[in-house]
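Re: the request from the purification team.
They wanted to know what the chain is likely to look like in 3D before they choose a buffer screen. I agreed to run a prediction and write the result into the notebook, where they can find it.
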Amino acid sequence: MTFFVGPLTQPIIEHGFGFEESHVLVLQTLAFNDHAIKERELKFHPMSCVGGLIVLVAWSVSICFAQPDLGPQHRPSSPSKIGSPYVPVESWVYPAFDRLIARGYIKSAFQGLRPWTRMTCARLLSEGEDALNTEVEDALNTNAPTDMMAVFSELEQEFSLEMKELAGTKVREIGFESVYTRPMGISSTPVNDSDHLGQTVINDYGRPYGSGFNNVTGFTLRGQVERFALYADGEYQHAPASPSYSSSTLQILANVDGTPAPLGDTASGRSTTNDFRLLDTYISGNALGVDISVGKQSLWWGPSAGGAFAISDNATPFWMFRINRTDPFRIPGLSRVTGPFRLDAFFGELADHRYPPHSFIHAQKVSFKPTANLEVGFSRIVVFAGANHVPLTFGSFFNSFFSVNDVSSATKFSRNDPGARHSAFDFSYRLPGLRNWLTLYTDSIVHDDVSPISAPHRSAINPGLYLSHVPGIPKLDFRVEAVSTDPSSSTGLGGQFIYWEVVYKDVYLNKGNIFGDWIGREGKGYQAWTTYWLSPKSSVQLAYREAKVSPKFIPGGTTQNDISAKADLWLRPELDIQGFVQYERWLIPVLSANRQSDVTAAVQLTFRPKDMIGFRETR
């Protein structure tokens, strides 16, 4: 294997300096990343340098705190001391854990901060098994929960290696985790403008799509060695060309955006796509219980299943430097009231940002659990700096980080602009009297206020209910959510509030797609799902979605109505087949005076070998 080295890593890789082989392997991987970023010749170089240095620091700390190999009884058994890749946000694992959490078997999970590492999943699984065993052994309980036992059994198989690591086994591995392909056909003209008119396909990593044949074919690989981990997801993407909107429509959208041309990358048309792209691809190191990573990552900050206001997978992942406390911790004194905490934070650069170009983003989220049934989260997302506006310096970063007050127009259009600031609040609560049945949750976001709690009348909101099982049909669940980015106090802001800003007009776009909730700007909608679980991994689902954009934003407004069916069938432990079909009707007067319809159909095949194709060593 050939590794490319950069200035940060070349001396260590060439000479070794007496470090262990595993440490040199991690540095070789880091060197490859260093070279790749350099070759891209992006504005990203400040972050790559900082990220490289901090990963090196984390690596150095791991050496200082590494324990000698004195046998299993002396090896690390805490997930906070073991490097571990994250489980992708679309994995079957999360719905399985959602069922266990809603039924009360797992109480320490933070559902509003995803993805989780594989070691975190193993820790939660260990916790849940204890609760399940207690219930089964309870003399008053004559009916063992066989459906939940099956879920535990399937998760045990998925995380068997991580469970062994918790018990003291030492693991080194790297290899291909899966290969997948998804052909998708769309009849007629779909809706593909997340910043204005809506989307036919949502929460799909910003993959391009159009009328006709679409395809993604890719692979995932993962690896870990001691405190370090890496993950890569690369895929070929094909999508047909899409035509430009009419000149009159382009002008209407430009007017509402306050720009010479509409925001996003679809209004002006798109040529046929045939690209290879990286999705989640990163290297991480665990130091002092904190996971530090550099690369492209997808996050889901919120309890809702249909969308997350702060950050979701509706857009392509962006390059980031991330610090994440993956497991809960307690603050002496304060945690008597708040319970345990979790923290997540990152700094990155947005792709294809135009207002201003080369803008950067930083975000932080803190969540806590006052009780086992209540989770509360606060987050802050700031887009700042940019070419010909505010240079990226430590000063501009600290200015944006600590700024919470309104600023004058003179400041806003100066080098002291703190950036475009959004704040989010969410909670989830297992309702008393229906603890094992019904969970209430809400996500919310506000622009230029400290928190949605302090300005509810200016906030977007997304409440939801999750019924974990229907009486008499334990394998059937139901979920419903309603979402609005049209605040109750608004008399029509023309789409110029949530997900928009006077300087950073494309503030919530990454590579042309909204990276928050699919509902977009000044819209309202709702979703409902019912899922029947054929097995812990296989299911069939029916869903309905409706979305409307305010006519005070888009002349004539917009209406979308989607009904869909999905089957997820694991025919063998290593073979997953997903089928999806959706019928959509939409009315968007700025595109067509008549109601239109389209049908989307897709089949995805994923092969995940029981043992990864690559190298694995356990001892």
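For the purification team: The CA atoms of residues 460 and 500 lie 13 Å apart.
Please add any questions underneath this entry.
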